[in-house]
Amino acid sequence: MTDSPRPVLLDCDPGHDDAIAIMLAVADPGIDLLAVTTVAGNVTLPNTTRNALRVLDMVDRPDIPVAAGRDRPRARDLSTAAVMHGESGLAGPLPIEPSRAALGVPAIELIEQVLRDADEPVTLVATGPLTNMADVVERLPHLHDRIRELVIMGGAVDLGNWTPAAEFNIWVDPEAADIVFSAGTVPGGDTGAGIELTMIGLEVTHQAWLDDAHAAAFRGQGKAGQFVAELLDHFVGFHQDRFGWPGAPIHDAVTIAHLIDPRLVQTMPMNVQIETQSALCMGRTVADRWSVTGRSPNAAVGLGIDRDRFVTLLLQRLGTLP
Ligand code: RIB
Ligand code: CA
Q1: CB of 203 shorter than 6 A to ligand 1
Q2: Could you tell me the CATH superfamily of domain 6-318?
């Protein structure tokens, strides 16, 4: 008897790697992608929302509802990563207009409806700034028991990627991240109040890179494969030029791969606090790797990944798309 597919809601800011995360969630038979919500981050909210709709068209899933969330961080101006993803957010593939509009309700209302109506607790995945997830923590306390867990791409135990101290998703909206981590508990721990939280940070995702050879493998492999190849052409080129890396880390897809194969990512319970005051270290995830603070762990923090297993899984699943 195979388990029924895991119900998932993905909150994202597409974004090249968010787009691949959406495609992986749709491709895996063990995941039931109930809805996609969008947040301002990589690019502005109209563009992240248009991109989510475009990607779902690309994989022939215009039935999956999309709702737009917050268009700016909670307590500061929006700073985007358009330099990396292009102003559109999906530089590379030819810009095609979505077949539909997003729902006329804010993301928090779609999230509430999904949590309320699902047959079982829903896994939330967040691959952008945590602005919408902070709303879930604060505005849906009556539905926290309908959340199986929250898996985020964000943060780092060691160095950042957007500043020397901080990873982009957390840096964009540190106040939101602080609210989310303050509500976090360790998955499988004592089921006290709070939301079971897994942090997939840069120690993991910087190993999850694809390169030109992977782009070549996708090229011509149907509509979806061609789309991924064109995404990688831009994304790999940017990372080779900007960082001198062999390829581009597909950060966000690791959150979905972690749901598909829990053996992929090695995690450790840690206390994680968010820096919201220091100009120098704003948005840093202060992860107590050696338990020196005495603070209780509030998340399972990713420390490593079986890279070959990840790449094999990603290529195999994406290869099944039309
Ligand atoms: O730091 C990487 C994260 O920032 C990824 O989610 C990427 O899409 C950007 O949002
Ligand atoms: Ca993202």
Answers
A1: no
A2: Ribonucleoside hydrolase-like (3.90.245.10)
